[in-house]
Amino acid sequence: EKEGFEHFMLKEIYEQPKAVADTISPRIKNGKIVIDELEMTDEDIKKVSRIQMVACGSAYHVCVCAKYVLEKLAKIPVDVDLASEFRYRNPLMAKDTLVIVVSQSGETADSLAALRESKKKGYKVLGIVNVVGSSIAREADSVFYTWAGPEISVATTKAYSTQLAAVYLIGLLFGKVRGTIKDKEYREYIHELGRLPEKIQKILDEKERIQWLANKYSHTKDVFFIGRGLDYAISLEGSLKLKEISYIHSEAYAAGELKHGTISLIEEGVLVVGAATQPDLFEKEVSNLVEVRSRGACVLGLTSYGNYSIEDIADFTVYVPKTQDVFTTSLAVVPLQLLAYYISVAKGLDVDKPRNLAKSVTVE
Ligand code: M6R
């Protein structure tokens, strides 16, 4: 079943171009985004006052991205909660809040409980789910299926990428209906969405460099992932991927938070992965990288082609193709998945079944 790949995780990383294309293409008709399964009229979409996103683990990291993406595209305020927190804090939600629960398995206990809590309070719940007919898919008012196909590896990769694609589609649809995206921009976004699979493929084709970096850093004890805005969201995911399958201690920080405590942990030999794909925040991120480097950290820069000035400060740099700023997460996550994967392989660990973890967390 691994189709020649050494592990399911690598197979699933390689399936991402197709999974993303399969999630996007059925929802684009005649140059327009159509998501019938939302079961929302234009009036319903216009009425949404806030969006409440809830999930666990990597799906939660998709929600963190979604806050930036949906607020930018559709100009709707987005709140993001961990399902395990949301379910017990008796959340106060504005009238006409749309609740979106994100889950690959559709069986995560806390996410399901969050869904039930929201429905009990009378809110409409949209599920972004991968497994057809799963509990969350059955109980949500409407379901957006991510067509990633079965995901076996405990560490999610292709499901995460298709969840992001779902968020882009929903953001563009809402933005168009609510008039927050101009026609020209809308066309450009749709064109660029269609190009994401080939750009992901290009990163996969350049995997040797990541493999080399992974071998070089497989003995590292501490890794910090830092970024701002969407680069912070991607840092959360990069850090989780690394810790779950390589057992290396890692943390993700909003780069601007470093000075509020974490920078005291930076010393000679610590690896800092600095994500800097967002043009408006690039200089700010670079200045944080200067600060950690001057304290002895080894800096791995992650940015888009063209931002070559990062080489003045980074020890190594990984470039991803350019795309719309809001879509970069889909590209920047791929080198981070590969980094975690190859470090786990270099350490001889059980990549697909890391210790203490289950694919689906059906108990709280
Ligand atoms: O099935 P779900 O998407 O609801 O699962 C949520 C998390 O358990 C999951 O993303 C977990 O964090 C992964 N192991 C991350 O790779």
UniProtKB/TrEMBL annotation:
<dbReference type="GO" id="GO:0005829">
    <property type="term" value="C:cytosol"/>
</dbReference>
<protein>
    <recommendedName>
        <fullName>Glutamine--fructose-6-phosphate aminotransferase [isomerizing]</fullName>
        <ecNumber>2.6.1.16</ecNumber>
    </recommendedName>
</protein>
<feature type="domain" description="SIS">
    <location>
        <begin position="213"/>
        <end position="354"/>
    </location>
</feature>
<keyword id="KW-0808">Transferase</keyword>
<dbReference type="GO" id="GO:0006487">
    <property type="term" value="P:protein N-linked glycosylation"/>
</dbReference>
<feature type="domain" description="SIS">
    <location>
        <begin position="41"/>
        <end position="180"/>
    </location>
</feature>
<comment type="subunit">
    <text>Homodimer.</text>
</comment>
<keyword id="KW-0677">Repeat</keyword>
<comment type="function">
    <text>Catalyzes the first step in hexosamine metabolism, converting fructose-6P into glucosamine-6P using glutamine as a nitrogen source.</text>
</comment>
<dbReference type="GO" id="GO:0004360">
    <property type="term" value="F:glutamine-fructose-6-phosphate transaminase (isomerizing) activity"/>
</dbReference>
<dbReference type="GO" id="GO:0005975">
    <property type="term" value="P:carbohydrate metabolic process"/>
</dbReference>
<feature type="active site" description="For Fru-6P isomerization activity">
    <location>
        <position position="359"/>
    </location>
</feature>
<keyword id="KW-0315">Glutamine amidotransferase</keyword>
<keyword id="KW-0963">Cytoplasm</keyword>
<dbReference type="GO" id="GO:0006002">
    <property type="term" value="P:fructose 6-phosphate metabolic process"/>
</dbReference>
<keyword id="KW-0032">Aminotransferase</keyword>
<dbReference type="GO" id="GO:0097367">
    <property type="term" value="F:carbohydrate derivative binding"/>
</dbReference>
<dbReference type="GO" id="GO:0006047">
    <property type="term" value="P:UDP-N-acetylglucosamine metabolic process"/>
</dbReference>
<dbReference type="GO" id="GO:0046349">
    <property type="term" value="P:amino sugar biosynthetic process"/>
</dbReference>
